[in-house]
Amino acid sequence: MVSALESQDYEVQEVSIGNNYNLTPPREDKPALETCADEIDEDQIQEASSKLNYSSVQPKEDQDAKLVQGESSTIQGETNVTIQHDDDELIGRQEEKAHLIQLICKGGEKRVISMWGSGGIGKTALAGSIFTSDEVCSHFQISVWVSVSNDFDHIYFFKTLAAELNSESPQVQEKASQLKSSLADMGTEELIEESTSLLRGMRYLIVLDGLLTLEKTHMELILSKLPDDKNGSCVIITTRLVTAAELYASDKENIYELGPLNDHEAHDLLISKVFGNVQIVDVAPELTEETKVIAKKCQGVPLAICVISSVLSTTPRIAEEWRKATDELMSVINEPNPDGMLKILKNSYDQLPYYLKPCFLYLAIFPEDYNIRRGRLVRRWTAEEYAMDYEQYSAEQMSERYFDELISRSMIQPSDGGCRVHDLMLDLAVSLSTKENLMLKLEDTTSGGSSAQRTVQHLVISSGWKRSKPEFDRTVELTRLHSLTVFGEWSPFFISVSTKQLVVLDLEDTSGLTDEHLLHIVGRLRRLRYLSLRGCKGIRQLPNTIGNLNDLQTLDVRGTGVVRMPRATVRLLKLQHLLTSGFDSDKVTPQSKRRRPVARKRNMMSCFPSPAAPASSTDGVRMPEGTGMLHELLTLGVIDATASGAVLKELKELDRLRKLAVAGISAENGKDLADAINDHRRLKSLLVQSMDHDGLQAFVDSMLDSGCSAPKNLQSLKLQGRLVSLPQWIKQLEKLHKLTLTGTRLLQMQESLSFISNLPKLAILHLKEESLMEYRHEGMEIE
């Protein structure tokens, strides 16, 4: 009887979450942000106070031939980003930041500095601001940011050390790049020796963010193996545990407690979050005293202030309404334990509109401290039907709006190309989704004993879970499973006749997956709408049976060994996103969980070209004839034009394309590409890579000479190859936000920059290897 009732309850939940949540769009009284999917996801342009933001470009290896499919590159080694911290996060922390920088930059023996404080107090924000500060970046020769997850151990650390290492030394960077490709095959001793060899003789900074337990065995091994050349190297540990802080710090001087903000600082943060850069006396003077009372009740905890601010920002600016809106939150703010904070966060969840609740709970799928790519999350939501078409907006555009609204409500934090979830927010999402039988996460601590089999919609296999098929079968019931996400090692028994209802299969960076496994998967799962094989090095080709996935919307094979799409691809008539790349799969490394690049916030008029590996002439995937039949495609690339001459002409039929990347452009086919994209009004992002000296020039000349019209709505343009000068038609791109040049070898730097500065909307300019002939090797800064 009990099990029957539980089954009926689950069915009610499934109907509720699978249908009711997606029937109605956001209420007009609380509109979501208007940033929709037909804006470029990858180019979340940061507000610029000047005409151009020439951003630092310090790639570890060239990944630019890969189309940025509405999201940042996720291949480790890509540091083509400039972190711009929200100044709000550091209100009241400037003195602490200055003190810690002084402590960190001391010379002498290797030191361990522990920063500890309660959850939500701002440890990661402060550590991140220090990590990317000019003083610290110029002082250390090597910097590494390591996010401590539940699967953290010394092996994880030393693998991450090589994968996340940032250095301005080309020799060190090249050695790290070579090491990454062989990490999976190394034994423990070799891994430690090779990883630490990168640090020897160098002054390094390593941040271990979010140590959750004492981890004594692993931590003592890690700290003992890190070299000490007595040149001022430093390790920073952030933790909630004072015991861990005291255990690992070099001495008492290196233990730093991060306390709450004082009342004045808390009030400043609250005002900044609610009203932005304006003063409260200018917009709502009658609320001045009320905001002071609210800020005081938050007891100086930044996370609590941010959560409450998100509530107040949508509340009418009337003192009584504000008191009413915050009474429930404040009833638990005085609780000193973590449960008190969770209750506050739960209240913020309860106040979410119905359509955002399943989107928030879905975040529980991802590991702690994980950088979730915007495109990945939005496309998964769309495949799960968390959003539906509404008026002029597509389902994916509605999902984009939901993403932006979660950010505006401080439920998630914006990051490079996506978002992060604060660990306390993630705890809440996991707790609620588990309680409501939405998700089961199999981790190394998951019991495989005699407990009842769980029926859930979303199953997550964590990297630490390695059990047998009988344990798997005893733990989870698969017949109602909607999504399967694997972060660890693949096992064939994950897929069976019971998983035929799956609509999302996300195997990004899954190890041990082979072509034979994929053949079995595709044969079983006919209802898939989202299939990601990104970073799966064992995948070399797709089976022709892929064409049987009639509902497939997203197919991601970037970072695999796939260089040719099967002929059956043309049967995927609902396909919207085909994310491909033709790079050698042996060079692919797993996704970074969070990027803390060495690039630093600079003057808005600074320019840093930097070396990048030359692009290959085969950096694309061969498409079959008939690609023009895929009329629903929004994203396509990178495709190989050298072997897809007919396909280039078929691009003209794909008039819904928003993002396109083409490699292998030559003097022979440059005109074909120009003709194909002529007047593609919806195209927002274009990457063109030349295979020879004349290919790119042939393309840009054809855009002008053949009477072709450049896509007027382009927001991102990437040109890779030789050019005599910048094409005049670029001036017509009035909506261009981002321009990236690689290997263009433009002769007149000042003339070129002057030309570019006349583009009215341009915010970001990336100049990479040999983009300007006057500057070819060393970094340059223009004030």
Automatic annotation (TrEMBL):
Domain Disease resistance R13L4/SHOC-2-like LRR: 481-581, 620-772
Protein name: Uncharacterized protein
Matching Pfam families: LRR_14, NB-ARC, WHD_DRP
GO molecular function ontology, one term from the record: ADP binding
Gene Ontology biological process terms, A to Z: defense response to bacterium; innate immune response-activating signaling pathway; plant-type hypersensitive response
Domain of life per record: Eukaryota
Domain called NB-ARC: residue spans: 95-276
Coiled coil, from the record: none
Keywords linked to the UniProt accession: Plant defense, Repeat
Disease resistance protein winged helix domain segment(s): 365-429
UniProt cross-references to InterPro entries, sorted A to Z: Apaf_helical (IPR042197), Disease_R_plants (IPR044974), LRR_dom_sf (IPR032675), LRR_R13L4/SHOC2-like (IPR055414), NB-ARC (IPR002182), P-loop_NTPase (IPR027417), WH-like_DNA-bd_sf (IPR036388), WHD_DRP (IPR058922)
